[in-house]
Amino acid sequence: MRPNFENTAIAFELKSDPQLNRAYFLFKMISMAPLVRIGTAITNFAIKMRLPVEGLIRATVFDHFCGGVNEEDCLPIIDNMYGNGVCSILDYSAEGKEVDNQLDFAMEKTLEILDFVKEKDAMPFAVFKPTGFGRFKLYEKVSEGAKLTEKEEAEWGRIVNRFDKVCQKAHKLDVALLIDAEESWMQDAADDLVLDMMRKYNKEKAVVFNTFQMYRWDRMGYIVKLYKMAEEEGFKIGAKVVRGAYMEKENERAEDKGYQSPICENKRLTDENFDAAIDYMMERLERFTIFAGTHNEKSTLRLVDLMEKSNISSNDERIWFSQLFGMSDHITYNLAAHGYNSVKYVPYGPVRDVMPYLIRRAEENTSVAGQTSRELTLITKERKRRKLKG
């Protein structure tokens, strides 16, 4: 039976009345684009000046979109969600670190989480960002095919070693590992690294997952090429399929530097590209494991229908659905209620370090047509339902 995304009783069962009211307030604020721009500027200034704003941030936007400042903070949330059939992915979301001791710390944090995941059924995946393990500018230089200095060669070697150490442990523990995608001008270097890890550790099953941002018109071609390599060389493909998170930045850079934007011309083409990727993978499930990271109801139901049409059970380990913590609960929890593999990305980390992530969430909700209004409509519906229920 198809999940009903209008069922707000299931969607918000875990939210108390105060939490529901806070969610309403936040999305109401986020729906006002000028307010988001002003709020972002003020927040960035306050953090830069080390003003005491962490308590306010923690009590509002942080607690809605993040699990906590450390793993222990997140445990009650993880257990709570798992009680309703929803798994979690702990995502250490501190960004913009560039020196070796900070990059090594991010690697050690990922290694710790792999141990954590191995012991906890509620957490089927671990995750990291390529720029958590290496300097953005170096990925960019490698992606351009530029000659590296001797010092940079050594630095790149350390990035490769971080990737390999984490992927090797994931393989040893039999824990799936998602590697996020980032900006297009550094992504080729990351793609090549992830491909090497897949060749090495995905021989029996998909352990290492790459992320494909389908708002890029070139990604479908890359997926087809990757499949051919996997067929010839005998490895599996872990595929996290998303629309993408850096649209404004991508378009602005392309315009500034005078090259064709890698982003699809409009949302319709992005949606078609996303669905085409899912179709392609669904026809080749002997090679792919699909992780559909989407807040789009149509794409979600389309994949549900494809599974039913192909007689694939709702809990088939080759297909996962995911949404971000604090968003689209109506999709996640209603899928879980129907037995589908549903998982929430749960970001965590020190408040100041997680701010770039939180700002991106606010900006994304503002720019994606209909996302915030949909959240508000459903929250309003649930508040009314509870009021009538007494």
Structure description:
The chain is α/β, with parallel strands linked by helices and 390 residues long. The chain has a single domain (66-353), classed as TIM Barrel, CATH 3.20.20. The chain contains 17 helices and eight strands. It has helices spanning 8-11, 17-30, 33-48, 54-65, 71-82, 100-118, 130-133, 136-143, 150-173, 184-201, 219-233, 247-257, 267-282, 297-309, 329-337, 351-367, 371-389; strands at residues 86-92, 125-128, 176-179, 208-213, 237-242, 288-293, 319-324, 342-348. An eight-stranded parallel β-sheet has the order 1-8-7-6-5-4-3-2. Helix 3 runs antiparallel to helix 16, helix 11 packs parallel to helix 13 (267-282) and helix 13 (267-282) runs parallel beside helix 14 (297-309). The longest helix has 24 residues, at 150-173.
Entry summary:
The protein has 390 residues and is of the alpha/beta class.
Keywords:
390 residues; alpha/beta; TIM Barrel; 8-stranded parallel beta sheet
The main sheet comes to:
8 strands, parallel
Strand order of the largest sheet: 1-8-7-6-5-4-3-2
Task: Please count the beta strands (DSSP E, at least 2 residues each).
Answer: 8
CATH architecture: Alpha-Beta Barrel
Helix content, binned percent? 55-70%
**Could you say which structural class the secondary elements and strand pairing correspond to?**
alpha/beta
CATH topology: TIM Barrel
Q: How large is the count of helical segments?
A: 17
The overall number of domains is 1
